[in-house]
Design goal:
The protein contains 14 helices and 18 strands. By secondary structure, it is an alpha/beta fold. Helix 8 crosses helix 9 and helix 9 packs across helix 11.
């Protein structure tokens, strides 16, 4: 996945202390550009007049920026931002610097008024592609939102098989997906994933890795061999097809057709940063890309499961697919065969504790929405099979569940040990998506 490419431009007016403002701009942009996770495209001159704005717009257009930061270093002409927007037609950050100390004369920057002017012009033009920020440091949450947007809009997403039997709620309208996110979903059959013949030496390496990572005492040698082979096959497949994420129909046919389920394979490969969604859930797969861009290297697709209203917690659980690096380092991390007639082969462990969040892009009734909630994963004993975390959300679990069921959110969410509520809301504004608000009374409507 390529980096987000963000443009930077300084707008000023000579009737203010524009030379000091431009010096401050250059200094602050050097700090901004220390973030190497983004490709920064800095326009090399101040923009004061309309013709300069046109040239700057062409510069950013030719550099194919994904978003543009328009800095109001001082107050400025009102049409500069409109000209820049007309050229790039990308999300905008309208950034105004804090006012400088008074020196006995008139106001030195008046930057906030410039931001207000830009925002009013854009809004009254029918445009909502902007976010406003005032301060001497860039809005890091907006930058994160742009990274999430770029991860989604440039994604190569594959669906292996179809969604799991009866899981109609995770099916997608592919042309709506293209309209909203620019994604062209690519379809594969299951045997395209596991039908190859991988390098025997690599299989042996993966067998050693499995033995070093998991307690495999409940597996037969053939099952260990099959999991190791599937790890190599799936790794090769995703790389050869150059997919950013795959959604896999992991049941009911997979175990019967191949010999073992893909759960353990997914746990291992996801711990290496390869994104895989189970049960053919395409929107969960895309959500994984967003969560990774928000800072979680190894996101976990989970069910909101086994809720306890009295004690106010839920288990975020799934059939042994969590990235094995999320293990709590306390319980026995094992491979089990408790389902699919002994062909299940899932990872079994408790996930580590700490601050966390859940996220899902979800489409219903023609609208794309974002569901998001924060909380804390707390320690627990290994009491059941699968991979899971015990979570106490910031809002009461009954409220969280009511919100999910009365807005029709699908039963898979993406968990990560990062929290990014402001970035999520900026992403929703940029993309024109609804935010499902847990604090709203959906039950009472």
């Amino acid at each position: 996945m390529r980096k987000a490419r963000i443009g930077l431009v300084c707008t000023v007016r000579k009737t203010f202390d524009f030379l000091t403002a431009y010096k401050l701009y250059k200094e602050r942009m050097e700090e901004v550009k220390k973030d190497s996770s983004v490709e920064w495209v800095d326009y090399p001159e101040m923009v004061i007049e309309a013709e300069q704005a046109k040239k700057a717009g062409e510069y950013f257009l030719n550099n194919h920026v994904d978003a543009l930061v328009i800095v109001s270093a001082t107050f400025h002409l009102g049409h500069l931002a409109l000209i820049l927007n007309d050229a790039v037609r990308k999300p905008l950050l309208l950034w105004g610097f804090d006012e400088l100390p008074y020196d006995g004369g008139k106001i030195r920057l008046n930057a906030v008024c410039g931001v207000n002017l830009n925002a009013s012009n854009l809004y009254k033009s029918g445009l909502d592609n902007y976010v406003v920020h005032v301060g001497n440091k860039i809005d890091a949450d907006w930058v994160k939102a742009i990274k999430m947007m770029v991860a989604i809009k440039n994604a190569k997403v594959g669906l292996v098989g179809y969604h799991a039997d009866g899981f109609y709620n995770v099916g997608v309208d592919e042309l709506h997906l293209y309209k909203e996110m620019g994604i062209l979903l690519k379809h594969y059959e299951l045997n395209e994933l596991f039908g190859g013949e991988p390098d025997p030496e690599r299989i042996e390496e993966e067998k050693k890795n499995l033995l070093a990572t998991f307690d495999v005492s409940k597996l037969r040698q053939k099952q260990i061999e099959d999991v190791a082979k599937l790890i190599v096959l799936a790794d090769d497949f995703e790389r050869e097809e150059q997919m950013d994420v795959l959604a896999i129909r992991c049941w009911p046919e997979f175990a019967k057709a191949y010999g073992v389920s893909p759960c353990a394979m997914m746990s291992v490969l996801q711990s290496r940063g390869i994104l895989l969604a189970c049960e053919g859930d395409v929107e969960a797969a895309i959500s994984m890309l967003a969560v990774k861009a928000a800072g979680e290297a190894t996101p976990f697709m989970a069910d909101l499961s086994q809720v306890n209203y009295k004690e106010n917690y839920a288990l975020l659980w799934h059939d042994g697919v969590a990235p094995c690096n999320l293990w709590d380092h306390k319980c026995n991390r094992s491979l089990e065969t408790y389902f699919a007639g002994g062909k299940g082969v899932t990872a079994d462990f408790v996930l580590r504790d700490g601050p966390m969040s859940i996220f899902r892009l979800d489409t219903a009734r023609g609208k794309t929405r974002i569901f998001y909630e924060e909380g804390t994963a707390v320690p627990m004993e290994k009491l059941l099979s699968g991979t899971y975390a015990k979570v106490i959300f910031n809002d009461h679990i009954e409220k969280v569940i009511d919100t999910v069921v009365y807005t029709g959110v699908a039963h898979h969410v993406i968990m990560g040990y990062v929290q990014y509520e402001k970035a999520m809301k900026r992403l929703a504004r940029i993309m024109g998506w609804e935010v499902i608000d847990v604090k709203r009374d959906y039950f009472g409507i």
